[in-house]
Structure prediction request, 575 residues.
Amino acid sequence: APVVISGFQSGTSYKDTDLELVIGTQASLPSRYNCNWGTRYPNNIDPCVFYDEDGLLWMVYGSWSCGIWMLRLNPETGLRDYDVSYTLTGSGDGITVDPYFGKKIAGGYYVSGEAPYIEYIDGYYYLFVTYGGLAANGGYQMRVFRSENPDGPYTDSYHTGAVAIYDAARVNYGPDGTRKTDRGENIFGAYGDWGYQTVGDWAERSQGHNSVTVSNGQTFLVYHTRFQNRGEGHEVRVHQMFLNQDGWLCAAPFEYSGETVTDDQLAGNQQFSNEQLTGTYKLLIHTYNLDHANMQLALPVIVSLNADGTITGEASGTWSTQGGTSYITVRVNDIEYKGVVVEQTLEPTTEKAICLTAYAKSNGYTVWAYQLPEGYQNTVGATDDSSAYLGAFSTPLQLSDGQAAVFEFTNYSSKANNWNNWVACVSPGTAINTADLLIALRADRWENVQYSADGVSCNYNWTTFKDDMDGSKVVLTFRYLNGSITIRADITTAAGVPFYEEFTKAGISGAVTVYLSVDGSHLVVSKAEVTDASGVSAIMADGPRRAPCYNLSGQQVSTGYKGLVIESGRKHIQR
Prediction:
């Protein structure tokens, strides 16, 4: 049977609904229901059913327009509890309690907001509402409010009163301050250039319509996301959430990957010392007012957390920890954020990183950061793949005869031409010098100094080459030995297909500088290191009688693993 019905002012007659069962027999439809439905009463969609801490069963529902409403349900039937009555409160479009629809707890006046979800966590009921439009450029974003009672009032940390309810029409998402977008915690929004997965066309946006579950002391946020340049297709993501010192939720910066840490453990144990926390980080602030129509993203900056408690780099501030706990307080650009420090996996790899997530009680912003691995390079080239040939470079490495340099990166391409990919460069001396190149090996089997494909070998599928290179994982080695430099690229496509490219140039002497560049592409470089050239060799992944192999994190890997491995105490490139 129906639980609650909307829109009976037109179409379906109220006589064919349960309206009179709730409010009594009516000679005609009450005048308050003859209205502009979108500004006064809800569209009955997106129900969330939950028990409160007193064992009462509730349904919160609605609505995109005209607010989020609540009703008590009968736990024996699952239908509305007809023994619970609601007294009309307010008038016109300002009605906040209706005898039929129940109690309004958020939105109203055709202000956006749908997909409500309420979860009780450690003393508070947390209300999640998704603002904006569902499309990739629609500004879909999750907001969080909380209350001590299941039916409100729901507020945030920087307003007073039932701030989740609106008292006038306005657009509550988008790029300008007049829209009054600053309500509710912005748990996170559209973002890119983050880790190894949320980059390029896979930057996340239009996240929302979430649910929340609490299990064994852990809280999880489940939502769907669209992507930066991939149309309206969507995928489901799960992030763990944590309570900060003030009892506000902070979402982990990366997908859940089996971590077992709980809020109690974070509150009672300092997982990482201050010394371990010092280092270089990517830091990303989730604010309001992004220009979603033009696909604007929140993007990270590079900062250092220094031993003296300062933050320097592309943002400035301070940081401190609370002894005996994993709580951290960071002040960035004069805004204070409180949160937690956790370890996470940088998907889709098995690499671990120290991460922090924190909430600004003063304005609803959230901040994420993760510690960059030793040798990490920032993104090379513009993420819109507009960088011209030799127009952007990785941090260079210097080599002498007998040494090797290994770069690991993800290659993203505009796919306009075969050459719109990475370029492996060698300059004489100890600095980048594009006017004096010894080697400029392109990804498409072409060497731009000799300007030919002579001596370059590969096993590419040229029919699918442009698609293969985009999003591929590359282990690229410069091996300088006995006066020759061999450049070897071991490539694994996004679909898991392996390829290689190799080129050797003899007659080299003295110190050289090796580095990566781009041409109509961009690279996300995860590692760059110098090793002994005689200690780096190529071995086949499926060779006989193999000893156990381990990745650089110390985890045993299968013989099908592609990349740098340690076998019998020696480092190899496994192909």
In short: The first helix runs from residue 19 to 23. The CA atoms of residues 135 and 232 lie 6 Å apart.
